[in-house]
Design goal:
Layout: H1 6-15, E1 20-24, E2 27-30, H2 31-48, E3 56-60, H3 65-76, E4 80-84, H4 90-100, E5 104-107, E6 122-124, E7 148-153, E8 163-167, H5 168-181, E9 189-192, H6 199-211, E10 215-218, H7 224-233, E11 238-240, H8 243-251, E12 265-268, H9 275-282, E13 288-290, E14 292-294, E15 299-302, H10 306-311, E16 315-317, E17 324-328, E18 341-346, E19 353-354, H11 358-365, E20 369-378, E21 384-389, E22 393-396, E23 399-402, H12 403-411, E24 416-426, E25 430-439, H13 447-457, E26 466-470, H14 484-490, H15 494-497
Parallel strand pairs: 1-10, 3-4, 3-5, 5-6, 9-10, 11-12, 12-13, 25-26
Antiparallel strand pairs: 1-2, 7-8, 8-19, 14-15, 16-21, 17-18, 18-20, 20-21, 22-23, 24-25
Length: 513
C-alpha cells in the first residue's frame, strides 16, 4: 500500500496551521512552523551529507523540539530514523551504531562525547532546522507503505538489544487501533517524559500524537513538580509512562493540590502497579490504567477501559480491536479460561520484524503471529492478566510459578513501593520464590503479612519462601525495567543467609520477623 505517516502530518499543517504542535520549555511550534522547520532540517541534513531513501539517520539527544524537527526532516528525505539512548555508555552506543550503520549521527552538544568513538559523521542537533523564514522547496520522496520509518532497540532486561523495524503501514495500523480502543487518542495533548529510544517516547510521545492530529509537550529533564505544572498549565490529557514517573508525582508535596482535571488518558506498563498508586491517582479522579505491549507490538496493544482498570487493576484489557490475541500452550493450542499460556498476537499493528535478522524475525513473527514470550491468563469474561515471562518462570517441585503473578499480588498491599520476585535454590523443591520488597518508611509490612496475603489469594505452592526488605530502589534498565539478572546474582545466597518461611524462618530484612 502506498501510504506514509508524513501524509497526515502534512494534512494537519494545512488544516490547523496555527494550532500548537510541539513545545519544550520556551520554544513552542505551531503546525505551520513545525512543517517549515522540519523541511529546513531536511535541507540542512542534505547539505552536509548524501542521505537519501533507506539510509539511516541516528539521533542522540533528549526528547525536545529539536529532536522532533530533526526526525521529521530525516523522514522527509526518505531516511530511517534510529533513536540512540542518551543514557547509554560509549560501549552500548557503539554497538547500536554498528547494528544500524547510520550515514550520520545528529547529536546534542552535551552528548557529543558519546559519539566520539564512532567514525560516522556528526551534525549538531541544536542548530538543525533553526533557520529563519520559510523553507525552500523540498522534492517529495516516493514512499511505499512497507518502507521502514524507524529502527528501535528493544529494552529487554537481559540479552543484547535487537533492532525492531517500524514501517509506515505498521505504524498507521497501530495508531488506528489506538483510536478504536480509546477515541480520546485523536487530537490528544500528550506530555512526553520518556526517551525517544523507547516506545513510550518515540510512539506515545512523538509519532502517535502528531499523526493523530494532537500535540506534545516535552519534559526532557524529569522533575515531578514541573510535570504536575505542565499537566495543569497546558491542559495535558494524555500521559503514558512507566510506574516510576507516576510514583514520583504522587509522592511530591504538590500532588494533593495539583489540578489534574484535564488528564483523561493515564496509562502505565512494564512493571507491577501497586494498589496504593492506583488509589492515589484514583483519589484525584484519574483512572490509572495498566496496559500491555512490547516494542515488537509497537507500544501498547491492549488497553483496558477505565472501569475495568479500577475494578480489576491487574487486568490489561480484553485484547485488541484489529489485532487478535490468543493464549496458547506449548503445542500452540488455545488455552482454556484461567489456563496460563504464551500470548500470541496477529493483526496489522505489529512491527515488521528485526533489522537484518531474518532468522529471529521468522522465530518471533513467523506465520503472521507475534510470539511475545509473555505468559497470560484469560478468564471466563475475556479479561487478560499477565502472569510472567517464559524466561521468568520459577519451577518449584516441577510446578511452574510465574513471578509477575506474585509481584502483582504483593503490590496490592498498602505501603509496598516496589517488588521483584526471583527464584532461588531450595533443597526441598529445587527452586522456590523469593520476594525482594521495598516499602514506605511508615509502612507496617512484615514478612508474615506478605506470606499471609499471598496465602489468601494464591495456591500454597506459590507463597514466597523468602522475603527480603530493601532500603534502596530496585536496579532498573535505561527503559525502567527491573534488572532481574543482577538481582538473581546478588541474592543467590539468600537461602544460606536468610530464613525460609516454610521452616518458620524469614529473610534478614529490616522488617523481617
Amino acid at each position: 500500500m502506498n501510504s506514509s505517516i508524513l501524509r497526515p502530518l502534512s494534512a494537519w499543517a494545512a488544516r490547523q496551521p496555527d494550532a500548537l504542535a510541539i513545545a519544550c520549555g520556551e520554544r513552542r511550534l505551531t503546525w505551520r512552523e513545525l512543517d517549515a522547520a522540519s523541511t529546513r532540517a531536511a535541507l540542512d541534513i542534505l547539505a552536509a551529507t548524501s542521505v537519501g531513501p533507506g539510509d539511516r539517520v541516528a539521533i542522540l539527544g533528549r526528547p525536545t523540539t529539536e529532536w522532533v524537527v530533526t526526525a521529521l526532516g530525516a523522514l522527509k528525505l526518505g531516511a530511517i530514523i534510529c533513536p540512540l539512548n542518551e543514557r547509554s555508555g560509549p560501549g552500548d552506543l557503539a554497538r547500536a551504531v554498528e547494528q544500524t550503520e547510520p550515514s550520520v549521527i545528529v547529536v546534542a552538544d552535551a552528548l557529543r562525547s558519546g559519539a566520539a568513538e564512532s567514525d560516522v559523521p556528526t551534525l549538531d542537533l541544536t542548530f538543525i532546522g533553526r533557520g529563519d523564514g520559510s523553507a525552500a522547496a523540498l522534492a517529495a520522496v516516493p514512499v511505499n507503505g512497507g518502507d521502514p520509518v524507524a529502527i528501535l532497540a528493544t529494552s529487554g532486561s537481559t540479552g543484547a538489544p535487537k533492532g525492531v523495524v517500524f514501517t509506515h503501514d505498521s505504524l498507521l495500523s497501530s495508531f488506528f487501533e489506538w483510536c478504536l480502543a480509546e477515541p480520546s487518542f485523536l487530537h490528544a495533548r500528550a506530555l512526553s517524559v520518556s526517551s525517544m529510544a523507547f516506545g513510550a517516547g518515540l510512539l506515545n510521545g512523538f509519532l502517535g500524537p502528531l499523526v493523530l492530529g494532537g500535540s506534545v509537550i516535552y519534559l526532557p529533564d524529569w522533575d515531578p513538580s514541573v510535570a504536575l505544572a505542565l499537566i495543569r498549565d497546558d491542559e495535558v490529557n494524555h500521559l503514558g509512562a512507566t510506574t516510576l514517573f507516576y510514583e514520583q508525582m504522587a509522592a511530591h508535596p504538590d500532588f494533593d493540590t495539583a489540578d489534574l482535571s484535564s488528564l483523561t488518558i493515564a496509562f502505565t506498563g512494564g512493571n507491577p502497579v501497586t494498589a496504593e498508586l492506583i488509589r492515589l491517582w484514583g483519589d484525584k479522579g484519574i483512572g490509572l490504567r495498566q496496559v500491555y505491549g512490547l516494542t515488537e507490538s509497537q507500544s501498547h496493544v491492549c488497553l483496558p477501559s477505565v472501569e475495568l482498570a479500577m475494578a480489576e487493576p491487574d487486568s490489561v484489557g480484553t485484547g485488541g480491536v484489529l489485532n487478535e490475541f490468543d493464549i496458547v500452550d506449548a503445542d500452540g493450542n488455545s488455552c482454556a479460561p484461567d489456563e496460563p499460556g504464551e500470548i500470541v498476537i496477529s493483526g496489522p499493528g505489529l512491527a515488521a520484524g528485526y533489522w537484518r535478522n531474518r532468522k529471529l524475525t521468522e522465530e518471533t513473527f513467523g506465520g503472521g503471529r507475534l510470539r511475545t514470550g509473555d505468559i497470560g491468563v484469560r478468564d471466563a469474561d475475556g479479561h487478560i492478566r499477565i502472569v510472567g515471562r517464559t524466561k521468568d518462570i520459577i519451577i518449584s517441585g516441577g510446578i511452574n510459578i510465574y513471578a509477575a503473578e506474585l509481584e502483582r499480588t504483593i503490590a496490592e498491599l498498602p505501603g509496598v513501593l516496589e517488588v521483584a520476585v526471583i527464584g532461588v535454590a531450595d533443597a526441598e523443591f529445587g527452586e522456590t520464590p523469593a520476594a525482594l520488597v521495598r516499602v514506605a518508611d511508615d509502612a507496617d509490612v512484615t514478612a508474615d503479612h506478605i506470606a499471609g496475603h499471598c496465602r489468601d489469594r494464591l495456591s500454597s505452592y506459590k507463597i514466597p519462601r523468602y522475603v527480603e526488605f530493601l532500603t534502596t530502589p530496585l536496579p532498573r534498565t535505561a527503559g525502567m525495567k527491573i534488572r532481574k539478572g543482577s538481582l538473581r546474582d546478588e541474592y543467590a545466597d539468600l537461602p544460606a543467609r536468610g530464613t525460609r518461611i516454610g521452616s518458620r524462618l524469614v529473610g534478614h530484612g529490616n522488617h523481617g520477623v
